[in-house]
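Usage

Read records sequentially. Each one opens with the input sequence:
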Amino acid sequence: MSESIYIIHFIHPILMLLLLGLSCYSMFLGLKVMQTRMADIEIRKQLIKERFDIRHFQIGRLILALMVLGSLVGIVVHSLSDDELIISHHLPVGISMILLVFLSVAIIPLIQQGNLFARRAHVTLNIIMMALFLWQVASGMQLINEIKESHLI
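and closes with the structure output:
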């Protein structure tokens, strides 16, 4: 494996770790939005100034874009180095995560209209996505170790 192909294998994991951090931050913002919505009037006035809802929405859009981009980068890098796309457990779980984020973003107009079911679905979809994301970190670390071992040979 050439040195440049070896190095680009790490673009996807680094991007995904950044994305995991952003997802955790978005979850924090979502909790602050919920806290704002449920707070007493005086406290709500203070929390509204922080614009948690707008920040949560903007970070969510960034997460969607980076998740699609990061997944494509992972697929392209893998294809370039192996000349074929091997379907391991990591790929379908990653695609499932993208679908969960798409669904979560797609129901935002319903949430903005005050639909409680949509809000609960949004939270549930994102909790499932975060659980899969944590599993993907473990799975991805195994793949990185395989790449490092094959480079040493």
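Summary fields computed downstream for this record:
- Residues 116-152 form the longest helix (37 residues).
- The chain has one domain: 3-152.
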